[in-house]
């Protein structure tokens, strides 16, 4: 009986040792590999997401590149709207020429001191006051061209219309002309 008992001890001891080796092997070798594989799967998912985002960005840039000529034309137009040179006398002559083209007499214009723009720090505002005389239709065309068509950036701040005769009126305008003060002619956009 003692031999039977010693066989049982060896049997249970051997089983306990096998269980201990399996548990130890699990925690020391297998579980870390599962954790490593899980981390790798997470990295693959992150990389796949980044790759998809980069492919979309590349497609957007390719589409933008196709419009490069249009963007350069817009940039040139914006640079003309915000000249760096002090060209106020030239601009006032352009206003007179624009008025003459539209049968509007532009006169009595004055430009007062510059001030920094509150919105864009690299831009100066120059208040200009002028009077324009002509028919109401021609004055309307002049104001439309002044605000929307001519290349220089101006903002009409106030306007007063006085009828002089039956078909003639005088318009008093106060507007701000803008000038870029930065050394490089970079267009600055702002959001409000």
UniProtKB/TrEMBL annotation:
Keywords: Coiled coil, Membrane, Transmembrane, Transmembrane helix
Protein name: Type IV pilus assembly protein PilO
Any coiled-coil regions, as ranges: 37-81
InterPro entries: PilO, Transl_elong_EF1B/ribsomal_bS6
Top-rank taxon, per record: Bacteria
Record field: transmembrane: 9-29
The keyword Transmembrane helix belongs to this UniProt entry's keyword annotation: yes
UniProt organism field: Actinoplanes ianthinogenes
Keyword Translocase attached: no
């Amino acid at each position: 009986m003692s031999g039977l008992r010693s066989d049982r001890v060896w049997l249970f001891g051997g089983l306990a040792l096998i269980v201990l080796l399996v548990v130890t092997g699990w925690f020391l070798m297998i579980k870390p590999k599962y954790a490593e594989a899980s981390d790798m799967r997470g990295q693959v998912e992150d990389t796949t997401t980044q790759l998809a985002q980069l492919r979309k960005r590349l497609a957007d840039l390719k589409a933008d590149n196709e419009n490069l000529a249009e963007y350069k034309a817009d940039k040139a137009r914006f640079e003309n709207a915000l000249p760096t040179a002090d060209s106020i006398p030239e601009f006032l002559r352009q206003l007179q020429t624009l008025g003459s083209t539209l049968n509007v007499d532009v006169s009595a214009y004055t430009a007062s001191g510059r001030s920094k723009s509150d919105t864009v720090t690299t831009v100066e505002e120059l208040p200009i006051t002028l009077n324009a005389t002509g028919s109401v239709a021609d004055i309307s065309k002049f104001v439309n061209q002044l605000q929307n068509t001519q290349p220089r950036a101006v903002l009409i701040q106030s306007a007063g219309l006085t009828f002089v005769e039956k078909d003639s009126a005088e318009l008093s305008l106060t507007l701000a002309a803008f000038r870029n003060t930065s050394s490089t002619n970079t267009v600055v956009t702002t959001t409000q």
